[in-house]
Amino acid sequence: MTDIATTAQQPRFDSVEGLRESLRKVDYLSDEGIAGIVYLADRLGKPILVEGPAGTGKTQLAKSVAEVLGARLIRLQCYEGLDESKALYEWNYKKQLLRIQASKSETSGQDWDDIEDDIFSDDFLLERPLLEAIRAEDPVVLLIDEVDRVEVETEALLLEILSDYQVSIPELGTVTARQIPMVFLTSNNTRELSEALKRRCLYLHVDYPDMDREKEIVMTKVPDLSESLADQVARVVRSIRQLELKKSPSVSETLDWARTLVLLGVEQVDAETAASTINILLKYQSDIAKAVKELTAERKSFDKASPLSTSS
Ligand SMILES: Nc1ncnc2c1ncn2[C@@H]1O[C@H](COP(=O)(O)OP(=O)(O)OP(=O)(O)O)[C@@H](O)[C@H]1O
Ligand SMILES: [Mg+2]
User: How far is the centre of ligand 1, averaged over its atoms, from the C-alpha of 305 (Å)?
Assistant: First the structure.
C-alpha cells in the first residue's frame, strides 16, 4: 500500500536540531516537539495533522517548511461545500463540448469511441490542488488548510491521497505520486475529524508558545523592537492568557500589539499603556473589560514597581 512511502526517497532533513535551525533561518521559531514531528513525518512518509488554537503558526509551519526545502507550496483552502471538482480535478466541459462539435462538422466522420478517448484525456483535465501535488515533478509541500471546515463526508476525498499518495480518476485510471510530497493538514478543532483521517496522519498539537519562544518570535518578526519591550510584551500576553477569556490573544495578535507599541514609541509597558491598547490583543468587549480590570488591579497592588515592567 504505502510502499512508496518507505522506499527510495531521500530524507529531507539530517536531524531534528538541524531542521529547527533551518526553520529559524526562515523566521519560524519552532520547538523540539514541532521540529521532531516534521522530521519524523518525512522519514515515515506520513502527512501531519496540525491542530491548535487560532493564530499559533499552523499554516505558517507548512509555508516555512516549504521555504526551507525550496519547494513549491500547493494549498487547498477548505470550506464548507468543498467538493471533488475543487479539490481533486474537473473535466473541462466547455473544451470537451467544442471538441465534440468540431468532430461533427468534420467530413472525415470520427467514430464516437475515438472522440470519447480524446475528450477524457489529459488535455481536457483541469487539475485542482490535490491532483496537482500528486503529479508534480518539482518538490512540493501540500497544505490542506483548515480541514475541519469541510463536512465529515468530504474528508473521504482526502483519504486515498493521504494513505497511498494517489488519485483514482475513473476515465484515466490511477495517478500515483512521482515523489511523496510533505503534506500538512491544519485544523482549529471546530469539530472532531474522522478516525480514518486521523489514522493516516501524525498528530501535532501546536499550542501558544511559552514566554521565551513568544519573545523570540516577536523579536524576529517586529523590527525596531527592543529586547526589553519584547520581554514585557510576552509577559503581559502570558498573564492575559491566564484569564478566563472568550478568546485568548493569538501569536498574530501579540505581533500586532508589539508593532503598535513600536509605532507609538512606547519603551515601557505600564498598566495604563497596556489597558489603552488592549483592543489590539482582544476582540470581545467582555474580554477587554476583564483584562483591563486585572491590569489595573495589578497596578494598584504593585504601586511603585509594576510587575508588568519588572523582569522576574
Ligand atoms: N512559531 C512561530 N514563528 C514565527 N512566526 C510565527 C510563529 N507562530 C506564529 N507566527 C506568526 O503568527 C501569525 C499567525 O500564524 P498562522 O497564520 O500560521 O496561524 P494559524 O495557526 O494558521 O492560525 P489560524 O488557525 O487562524 O489559521 C503569522 O504571522 C506567523 O508568521
Ligand atoms: Mg491557518
Answer: 33
The model's pTM is 0.90
The number of the ligand nearest the C-alpha atom of 145 reads 2
- Provide the pLDDT for residue 207: 95
Ligand 1 contact, 28 CB (< 6 A)? yes
User: Using the 8-state DSSP alphabet, how is residue 154 labeled?
Assistant: G
Identify the pLDDT of residue 253.
Answer: 97
Between helix 93-105 and helix 112-119 the angle, nearest 10°, is 150
The rounded mean pLDDT for the chain is 91
Residues of the chain with pLDDT under 70: 1-8, 106-109, 299-312
Closest CA to 167 of 255, 84, 260: 84
Which of 252, 257, 259 should be mutated for ligand 1, with most atoms under 8 A from CB? 252
Q: Is the dihedral of CA 24, 190, 204, 155 positive or negative?
A: negative
CA torsion sign for 176, 180, 181, 185 is: positive
Taking the domain 3-85+128-205, which CATH number applies? 3.40.50.300
Measured in Å, residue 299 CA sits from the centre of ligand 1 at 31
Q: Is 310 helix (H, G, I), strand (E, B) or coil?
A: coil
Kindly give the distance from the C-alpha atom of residue 54 to the centroid of ligand 1, in angstroms, as a whole number: 8
Q: Which atom of ligand 1 is nearest to the CA of 146?
A: 27
Please report, for the chain, the start and end positions of each structural domain, with discontinuous segments joined by +: 3-85+128-205, 89-125, 211-307
Give the distance (Å) from ligand 2 centre to CA of residue 251: 12
In tens, the pLDDT along 138-147 reads 999 999 999 9
Tell me the pLDDT tens digit for each residue of 113-151: 888 888 998 999 999 999 999 999 999 999 999 999 999
